C-alpha cells in the first residue's frame, strides 16, 4: 500500500471473486502487523465452515478481532501506525445491522466518516451487489439498496478503490476523470 501512499482502501467484488484473498495479500505484504476485524457470525454449520476456512488461510501473525455490530468503534480502537486493519466484510456487518433493525443509513454514515480519523491504514472488503437482478422481496431490495449506498459512502471516504473479478484487481480510484477533446 505504501507505493500508492494511501491509508484507506475499499476492495469490492462479487461472491468468490477473490476480494478477501486480495485484501489479505496486501495486508501481509505491508511492513506492519495485520489485524482482521471479522464481522461474520456463525449462525449455522455452513457459515462456521466458511469462518474456519478463512482462518486457515491466514498466517499465524494475524490478530483477530470479532465485531459483528460496532465496527466504527472497533476500527477506532484497533487502527494504529504499527498495524494494518482489514475489515472482512462490510456486507456481513450491514446484514447484521439489518437483522438488529438498526438505522442502516446512520450506521453507514458513521463508518464512512470514521475513515479519515483512523490512526493507521485500513482495508475494507465489501460485496458489489448491484450488478444482479432486482430482488423479488422488499427486505432483499432494502438490503441491496443499503449495500449500494454503503459502498458509495466508503468509496468516497477511502483513498483508493479496487474492483476484484475472477481474482483480477481493477483500480477504480484514484483514476483520472475522463476529459473530452473538442
Automatic annotation (TrEMBL):
UniProt key word GTP-binding: yes
Coiled-coil region: none
Active site: residue positions: 54
Keyword terms of this UniProt record: ATP-binding, Cobalamin biosynthesis, GTP-binding, Kinase, Nucleotide-binding, Transferase
InterPro entries, per the entry: CobU/CobP (IPR003203), P-loop_NTPase (IPR027417)
Enzyme type, top EC level: transferase
GO MF annotation: an example: adenosylcobinamide kinase activity
Superkingdom classification of source: Bacteria
Protease in keyword set: no
Binding site residues for GTP: 13-20, 38-40, 66, 88
Enzyme Commission designation: 2.7.1.156, 2.7.7.62
A Pfam family: CobU
Annotated pathway: Cofactor biosynthesis; adenosylcobalamin biosynthesis; adenosylcobalamin from cob(II)yrinate a,c-diamide: step 6/7; Cofactor biosynthesis; adenosylcobalamin biosynthesis; adenosylcobalamin from cob(II)yrinate a,c-diamide: step 5/7
Catalytic activity field: adenosylcob(III)inamide + GTP = adenosylcob(III)inamide phosphate + GDP + H(+); adenosylcob(III)inamide phosphate + GTP + H(+) = adenosylcob(III)inamide-GDP + diphosphate; adenosylcob(III)inamide + ATP = adenosylcob(III)inamide phosphate + ADP + H(+)
Cited function: Catalyzes ATP-dependent phosphorylation of adenosylcobinamide and addition of GMP to adenosylcobinamide phosphate.
Similarity remark: Belongs to the CobU/CobP family.
Protein name, entry field: Bifunctional adenosylcobalamin biosynthesis protein
